[in-house]
Write the structure tokens for this entry.
Amino acid sequence: MIQSTNLPKVSIVTPSFNQARFLEATLRSVLEQDYPNLEYIVVDGGSTDGSAALIEKYADRLAYWVSEPDHGQTEAINKGFARATGEILAWLNSDDTYEPGAVAAAVQFLQAHPEVGLVYADVNFIDAEGGVIGKFNAQQTSLKRLQRGGVYIPQQAAFWRADLWRQVGPLDPSFYFAMDYDLWVRLARVKEIRYVPGKVWANFRLHGDAKTIAADERCWPEMLRVHRRDGGNRLAWIYVRYAVRRLLAPLINRRRRGLFSKL
């Protein structure tokens, strides 16, 4: 473990609801990071599947946790960050995991590059059992590319500065799917974002109940809402990407389902 006591505090929030099947792997992937100045907050939406008992098992290692009804993932994340006291922030959903050393690597990069406000790296797709089944198409993006629909930022491997969150946050609770895209756009307006290629920091779990599988059709309409809010027009490239995505969506989602159903 890194021994320095002068490292910035990193606050990580995990929102959860009825994900006991995967939750412990998520908790352990955070708590077993080799980073000494870590604040971990878990916000459960009143799960009925034993999640609360599982979280309580790790309560002495958590900065804060709660299990109570809420209005969904976005509200849970905002609730967690409202309690966060770190200089660097991230959230990890309750079916995803960090790779060992991810937090330390993100902090090291941000310390070495003060001009960067958000940093991200690569992410593996994993199945319900944790086996690697693919890789997220992460690459360098920018405000201009984001506005055209080129996201390329895996939320699971994204870390950003808390002072920027205080400028542009919290997440918009009207979004069900694209709240991270909305945040990336707002952050990119303020400070540079940077991709670290060739480094896997997290794992994005694909399973039958995952939002990426169950509600993908809601993502692009929400992204278009961000585009229009920021003054975009219907002749922009993002609309072309949306039209292509609508045509390919059945094939893409069938392929995603096949990735884990065959294993």
